[in-house]
Amino acid sequence: MSKTIFITGGAGFIGSHVVRLFVTKYPHYRIVNIDALTYAGNLENLKDIQAAPNYVFEKVNIVNPEEVTAAFNKYQPDGIIHLAAESHVDRSITSPLDFVYTNVIGTVNLLNAAKELWKDQYPGKRFHHVSTDEVYGALGTTGFFTEETKYDPHSPYSASKASSDHFIHAYADTYELPVIITNCSNNYGPNHFPEKLIPLMIHNIIHNKPLPVYGDGKYTRDWLYVVDHARAIDCVFHEGKTGEKYNVGGLNEWQNIDLVKLLCKQMDEKLGHPAGTSDKLITFVKDRPGHDLRYAIDASKIKNELGWTPSVTFEQGLSLTIDWYLANKEWLDHVTTGDYQQYYNNQYNSSI
Ligand code: NAD
Ligand code: DAU
């Protein structure tokens, strides 16, 4: 094997797509999936590649520095693609400390371990931090986030991700660690945990449950198909300039209510329901506290400098996503038993 790459959070939604892409595209790399398997981590996401000769899974909680150091000593990684995180904004509002532990302390533990292992011998080494557009705060009805936009996080989740980004820069400035950051917009696609808007709505339409839209539904997000995010990470990890950051987005803005209506239309067609059936489930509920009005990414840097562009339109990506959920009802059943029920009741039952 020519290189060993750690992909943290590789059992999660985006991480599993990054692991699959790297395992299949780079058979000469050893890919080590570093994941604690929290409620969001699921090895079922990787069933198709788990027997690949260049793939290893290692259960590690990045909050624990001893576990992190042991994994670094065991595998001696040349590169780290860091996705492990607490990722859901609503959970960050009820349990902010979990986000500080994993997203801030966990990231610093990984940075320390890389610094210790590489000991200033940086040629061929890279620490790629996968971050979010939420670090930039909220936009009004116009404008875009660029790589120069000032950080202005609002939720505990985005504050923890902004903090982790600052630590990445601090380790570059202070120790010359070879880092790179990507800040991406909202992802959707297969294996998305049904706490997030799109998979939650698909799950609820399948089960004929109310579709909870926060506030007036006019909040706006820029959606990107998860496979295109994985392609962007591959591109930046291999071709990006050390020390730089790259925004990743789909130039694909949707107000939540319009997106939910499009989803209802596609679901009705695929399920053979009369038009308008799923729309009747739409229910406006109590707003998310501190809800950011709009995110929109200017992705011209990654497009112009590295030649990355999304490969599917939103309508195609959404259709592929719905097809995946309809073909993988067992996956959906597995992840929505147990703790999920309690989460769902706490989050929605008082407002629906
Ligand atoms: P996810 O919640 O689906 O997966 C997170 C993964 O991290 C899980 O496999 C989980 O088991 C693992 N994990 C959590 N805590 C851990 C710990 N202490 N130690 C080791 N592993 C741990 O998240 P996602 O949506 O796939 O997001 C992945 C990354 O991409 C995150 O860093 C997130 O901030 C970032 N991001 C996500 C989006 C999005 O739309 N989902 C957009 C931009 C950036
Ligand atoms: O922008 C990138 C971020 O996108 C990532 O960094 C986060 O990890 C990811 O979770 C996502 O954050 P959002 O808060 O934008 O995603 P979520 O799917 O939770 O919500 C999308 C929009 O839909 C948001 O405006 C809130 C709204 N919403 C969400 C849920 C779960 C509802 O109206 N109803 C809901 O039940």
Bin the helical content: 40-55%
Distance between the termini: 53 Å
Order of helices and strands: EHEEHEHHEHEEHEEHEEHEHHHH
Mean pLDDT: 97
CATH class of one domain: Alpha Beta
Oligomerization state of this entry? single chain
> pLDDT under 50 segments (min length 5)?
none
- Strands of the widest sheet, in order across it, are 3-2-1-4-5-6-10
What class do helices, strands and sheet pairing give? alpha/beta
CATH homologous superfamily designation of one domain:
NAD(P)-binding Rossmann-like Domain
Radius of gyration: 20 Å
Number of helices: 12
Shape annotation: globular
Ligand set: nicotinamide-adenine-dinucleotide, 2'deoxy-thymidine-5'-diphospho-alpha-D-glucose
Query: Biggest β-sheet: count, sense, barrel?
Result: 7 strands, parallel
CATH architecture of one domain: 3-Layer(aba) Sandwich
And the CATH topology of one domain? Rossmann fold
Query: Strand share of the residues?
Result: 15-25%
Q: How many E strands?
A: 12
Folded structure, characterized:
It is a single chain. The protein has a domain at 3-191 and 222-251 and 295-313: Rossmann fold (3-Layer(aba) Sandwich). Helices cover 43% and strands 17% of the residues. It is α/β, with parallel strands linked by helices and 352 residues long. The mean pLDDT is 97. The strands form three sheets. A seven-stranded parallel beta sheet has the order 3-2-1-4-5-6-10, with helices on both faces. A three-stranded mixed beta sheet has the order 7-9-11. A two-stranded parallel sheet has the order 8-12. Strand 5 (126-132), helix 5 (156-175) and strand 6 (179-184) form a beta-alpha-beta unit. The protein contains twelve helices and twelve strands. The radius of gyration is 20 Å and the shape is globular. The chain has helices spanning 13-25, 65-75, 89-94, 96-118, 156-175, 197-206, 226-239, 256-271, 300-306, 314-327, 329-335, 339-348, and strands at residues 3-8, 29-35, 55-59, 79-82, 126-132, 179-184, 186-188, 211-214, 220-225, 245-248, 253-255, 282-285. The structure holds nicotinamide-adenine-dinucleotide and 2'deoxy-thymidine-5'-diphospho-alpha-D-glucose.
